[in-house]
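User: Assemble these into one structure.

Assistant: Restating your components, then the assembled model:
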Amino acid sequence: MLTLDFTNCLATHVGSHGLDPALLAPGSEAHEAVAAHTKRLAGSRGTGWERWRELPFEPMRSQHVGAVKKIVEQCRGRFDTMVVLGIGGSALGNIALQSALNPPTWNLIESGKRGGPRLFVVDNVDPAYFASVLDFCQAAPGGLSKTLFNVVSKSGETAETAAQFMVIRDLLSKALGKDYAKNIVAVTDPAKGTMRQICEREGFTTLPVPDGVGGRFSVLSPVGLFSAAMCGIDIDALLTGAADMDKACSNPDLHQNPAAMLATLLVELGTSKGKTNHVLMPYSNALYLLADWYRQLWAESLGKEHDLQGNRVNAGFTPIKALGTTDQHSQVQLYREGPNDKVIGLIEVESFERDVTIPTGLGVEAIGYLEGRSMSFLLNAEKRATEYALLESQRPNFTLKFPKVDAYHVGQFINLWQIATAYAGLLLNVDAYDQPAVELGKQATFGLMGRKGYEKHLTSVDRALGGDRHVIGP
Amino acid sequence: MLTLDFTNCLATHVGSHGLDPALLAPGSEAHEAVAAHTKRLAGSRGTGWERWRELPFEPMRSQHVGAVKKIVEQCRGRFDTMVVLGIGGSALGNIALQSALNPPTWNLIESGKRGGPRLFVVDNVDPAYFASVLDFCQAAPGGLSKTLFNVVSKSGETAETAAQFMVIRDLLSKALGKDYAKNIVAVTDPAKGTMRQICEREGFTTLPVPDGVGGRFSVLSPVGLFSAAMCGIDIDALLTGAADMDKACSNPDLHQNPAAMLATLLVELGTSKGKTNHVLMPYSNALYLLADWYRQLWAESLGKEHDLQGNRVNAGFTPIKALGTTDQHSQVQLYREGPNDKVIGLIEVESFERDVTIPTGLGVEAIGYLEGRSMSFLLNAEKRATEYALLESQRPNFTLKFPKVDAYHVGQFINLWQIATAYAGLLLNVDAYDQPAVELGKQATFGLMGRKGYEKHLTSVDRALGGDRHVIGP
C-alpha cells in the first residue's frame, strides 16, 4: 500500500503554519465531518456523477476490461503506432499511465521489442505539433496502414478532438480507401451524441465512456484503459490497486483513511492557513506526469465561484506540478523563502525496478562521497534533505510513499486522489463534478469560428477585446 | 518583434483587480522608478552578476559562437545521439530551445534525415530514467561510440551531475578504452573547480561557463548554445534576437520598454493586488517548455526571504506553466472561478510554419463549423475566447505575441524575461542573483550521503524527521 506521512503538516512541526493536532483528533469537528461524509459517500457511490467510484468493481470492471482486451487482441500485430486524439480528461490519464508504467524511450524501441505500439497522445490543436506526428506516422514503415487512431470524446463535439478527427479521417480514407474505419477505435458515449452517430455511420469499433463518469474521473474506464492495455500495461493490477485503495478510503476514521486525511489537510491548510497552492513533487520521472493528471482533478473539481447554496465563495486551490530532484534547482528557493502559501506533497519511491550504481575509481575528493552509492540512494537522500529544509523554513509538507512504481500502486494513487477530491468537494461544500466556467470560452470559440447561432458571442468578444489596446511593440 | 499587450491588466478592463493606468503614466512613481532602474542597469551591465547581459554582444558573442561552432564541426557525423548531463540552469534552457525549435519527433527521425544527433537532456538522478536512456544509447547502432555526452556544470560538484558523470565515464571507458574522452564535451568553469581539474586530467574538450553568468541566466552562453548548435538550431539568429530585445529593453520610458513593463505589471499586481501566482500559458506546444525555463528564472531570482537591507520580506511569486488550448480543459475553470490570485500570461503565435486544414466533407452539422478552417485559426480563436472569458471574470492577463516561432524570436523571448527579472529584482529590492535557501538541502544531502565533515547535518536531519511520525498505511 501507499503510505501517507503528514507529520510535517502539523503545528508541532511547522509552528503556526501547520494544523493543531487536536483539530484532527477523535471527537473533533474535522473527525466527525469525515465520518459523516464517509457515510454520505457510501450511500451515493455508484449513482449520479459518483459512478466513477464503481469502475474498479464488478460488474463494470469485467465489462470494461473484457471489451478492452477483446479489441487489444484484434489489434495485436496490426499496428506499429497508436495516436490518441483527446483533450483534458480524455488525454491526461492516458499520458500519465504511459509515462508512469513504460520506459521514457518507449517510442524509440524497435517495434518487435516493445510490448505494444508507439504511443502519441495529441491533446492540442497546435498545427505544427499535429503535423509532425502525422508526418511521422506517414513516413514510418507501413505508413498510415500501421497506425491506429484512438478518438476519445464522449460527445464528439469537443472542438479540438473533432478537428483532429476530421483531419485523420480524411487522411486515412485517402490512404486506405473504404477500409479506413479499421484504423479507428472510438471511446465515446455508448448510446447518443455526435461521435456515436459518426461511429455507426462509418463502422468504427467503439468502447464506452460510461454514463455518470466525468472526464477527469475517467482514467480507470475504457478512456484510460484502452491505450494502456495496447501498450502492455497491466490494467487488471491497475484496477486492483484502485479497488484496494477504495477499501482503505471507505473507513470513517479520519486517521485510517488516507483520502479523507489528504482532503482534510489540504482544505484546512488552504482555507484557514492561507496555503492555497498545492504542489505535488514526485521524486521520480515516471510519476511526474501523474501530477499533470492531478492538476486537472484538483483544479477543475474544486475551483468554483459558488458553493452548493449559491453563495459566492471563489473556492479552490492551485495545483502545481514539480519534479524532484530537478526542481530543487529551480523552485525550492521560492518554496523555502517566498510567501508561505503552499503545501508541498513529496512523492517517494522506496524501491526502483532499475538502479544504477555510481562507480568507484574517479578519485576526486570533492565528489568522492558519491562513489559506490546507488543513484536511488542519492535520489532519496535528496528527497529527505528537501523535506528537512522545508521543515526548517516551516513550510507544511507531506510524503506519499510508493513501495514501487507498478500498475498496482499507480492504481492506488489514482483512486487516492479521486476519492480525496470527492471529500474535498464535500468539505468545501462545492460541486466537484461540474465545470460551469468552461462554457463561456466554448461559446466564444464558436462565435469566432463562425458557427451559426453564436453571432452574439462574436460581437461580445470583439467588443470586450476591441477599442484602444495598450501594446508595446511594432 | 514580440509584442506585449497588457490592456487586460488595467482597471479599465478588470476593475479593482487591475492597475489604475494613472499609476503607470509618465511622471508616476512607477514610471520614474523604471527610468532610474534603467539608468542603474545601463551602468552595471556587464559587471558582477550582470555579465549575462553582454552575452549577445561582442566580444563574448563571437568568442562563444566561434568556440561552439568549432566543436560542432569536429563532432559532425561522429555522433547519432547526444546526452546532456546537467540540472537546473544547466538543462532547462537546453530543453526549451530543443523543444521550441525542433520538431517533437526529432529523436524518432532517421539519423540521416535529422539536422543533428538525437538529444536527451537528463536533468535528474532517477535511476529508472537514466538507465533507460543509457540502455538506448548502448543498443543503438554504433552504441556508445556514436554517443556524445555533454556534461554541464560550472563547479563539477553538483551532486546530480557529478553522479551522472561518474556513471558515464565508467561506461565509456569500459566500452571505448583510452579514447573515451573524445565522447565527452564539458561546459564548465574555464579556470578553476573540480570539473575543470577532471577535464584537464582526462583531456576532455571544453567550453566555458563564463564568470559572472549564473545558471539561470546562462542559456545564451555555451551552456545552452552547444546542444542547440549540435541539433541544427541557428544560434546566430538566437543571439541576434536577444540583442534586439536588449535594445528595446534599454529604453528608460516604461511605455516603450517591454521588460520594464512586464516587471512593473507583475510586481505591482503581485504586491498590491494579491496576484502572486504568475501563469505563462503558450498557445503552442513548441513554446511550452520555455515556460519551464521561465519557472526557474522567476522563482529562484525573486523568491527571497530578505530584501537587500536584510529585512524579512518573503518576496516572490509562484510561476506556473500551462498550455493552451490543453489547459482550457484542466485549469481554466479554476483560473476563472477560483481565488483571483493570478496574472495569466497568454502567448500567441501569429503565423505557424506548418498548418493543417480541417477538411470538408464529413457533413455532421454539430461540428460543421470547423470544416475548411485551418487548425491555427481554431487555436488562435480559442486563445482569444479564453482571453475574453478571463476578462469577463475580471482576471488580469496579458498577451505576448510571437510573429512566428523561430530562433530569432525565441532569443527575444529569453532576453525579455531575463531583463524583466533584473527589473523585478530592483522593484522588489531583492538580490535576483543568489539562491541562499538551496544551501541547506545540499548540506543535508551531504550528511545523508556520508560525506566527511557533514556529520552534524545528518544528526540534524535525523532529529527533525525522527520521533513519532503520523503515518497512514501499513
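The first strand of chain B starts at residue 3 and ends at 5.
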